[in-house]
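Our preliminary data section would be incomplete without showing what the modeling component actually yields. Below, a chain of 253 amino acids is followed by its predicted structure, encoded as tokens that our downstream tools consume directly.
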Amino acid sequence: MNGETNKLIVPISIIVAGALIALGIYFSGQGNTDGGKVKKGGAQGIIEDTLGEPDQPEIVVKPVTAADHIRGSIDAKVKIVEYSDTECPFCKRYHGTLKQIFDEYGSSDKVAWVYRHFPLDMHKKAPKEAEATECANEVGGKEAFWKYIDLLYATTNGNDSLDLAELPKMAEKVGLDVNAFNTCLNSGKYAAKINEAKTDGFNAGARGTPYTVLIVQNGRKTETVPLVDSEGNGLGALQYPALKKIIDKLLAQ
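Predicted structure:
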């Protein structure tokens, strides 16, 4: 009986190993998108020193422009580009971390925070909430966008727990014209923009949230560095000490 079992184990092991290799090749391919591969050295060297050497995916990150939601100076040496989902519990925690980072560095114009939408398919309410933040921006401008999204993250517990009826109430709390806000939100005028943002995020390497890319300016040289692990997966909601260590090293360049 043992001899027969051993005869079966060998070919089965070969099949399993082959399947695992095939899956590895398949999933490693999923992490690549069209674009230039991030080069080693410079800011990337600092990330490697801090987090270990990551296997950088090939990505395309849209340049930061005045059309972005920016907290801080567009000319900051380090721009933290966050791809986020308002119903992601980890994004809720990370939002607090980035507020802490910005409170420490933002006033010096050394660090800026750029928020980009990446609502996940699993969170059905997140796209409408993202539209609501765009309506807050339309009705009240940049300051209103940040007040609104701060309140939204403070209010929801994530995983589609927020009642969408709260969206106009939050608009009122941050001082917006509620009628104008509702007209904007009910029109669905920003739905296409949110879908485009998801595509942009995917091209930038986002597969989950929160996902972060650092854009580092050294003189005339600009480096784009995604915060990923050794397999090219986003590091998610980094805690404040880890992110601060990276920021400090980049600013000291």
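The beta strands are 69-71, 78-84, 111-117, 211-218, 221-226. The mean pLDDT is 83. Preliminary results of this kind motivate Aim 1 of the renewal.
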